[in-house]
């Protein structure tokens, strides 16, 4: 039976006077990988920020496992299992790989051990003392994801993890996502790389101007990729 983990209804968000999300509606089931696709500025990052409570001005409904996310203070959201890996990654240049990894507090039981993390991302193995920002872009992305997995988050919001990365490292990250999916994690992925998106996702939502305007199963999209082209301006 599919169990719904996240239900978002009529979600609005503002930055100051700018009204950015105009009533987004979508849902994510347990263990699903779901993408938010759309052009630059459509509101994908803002959706993640609104769910995490980083974007504070919000209205509507967002329920995670029955908990009202809009009524949850940002410092308690991680305790519900939601983890956010922002596009800019947030690796600290003053800290080593090990220190970056240990930085976020463990908020729930069941997080990955360092050994699990090294199995998932062998590139990070033996790099404990390396300064975080000395890693390649792809390795920094791995570190940013690993750090969240260690906290015990089992519902991950991943914002453009492959942006600017070489194809071989994109393949490494794709394999890691496959492992996380097989472990039963739930993931929302914002992604411009359609090949990566279709290799990993079960379903896709299309955002335009702060709303969800279309939805595809991965099979439907794979059967006719032209369905997404008009939305993305390909
Ligand atoms: P991108 O791929 O460019 O990040 P996106 O779909 O994730 O696209 P958002 O980053 O959510 O889009 O941005 C949605 C809109 O909100 C854009 O018009 C952007 O300029 C605006 N915006 C984003 N952050 C802020 C901010 N801190 N203050 C004001 N406006 C913002």
From TrEMBL:
> Which SMART domains does the record match to this protein?
AAA (SM00382)
Q: Keyword Transcription regulation: yes or no?
A: no
* Organism domain of life: Bacteria
Q: Which residues form the ABC transporter domain?
A: 6-234
GO MF, one example? ATP binding
Q: Which Pfam families match?
A: ABC_tran (PF00005)
- Which residue stretches, if any, does this entry annotate as coiled coil? none
Q: Which UniProt keywords apply?
A: Amino-acid transport, ATP-binding, Nucleotide-binding, Transport
Q: Does the keyword ATP-binding apply?
A: yes
Give the similarity note.
Belongs to the ABC transporter superfamily.
- In its UniProt entry, what is this protein called? ABC transporter ATP-binding protein
Q: Which organism is it from?
A: Roseovarius pelagicus
Record lineage: Bacteria, Pseudomonadati, Pseudomonadota, Alphaproteobacteria, Rhodobacterales
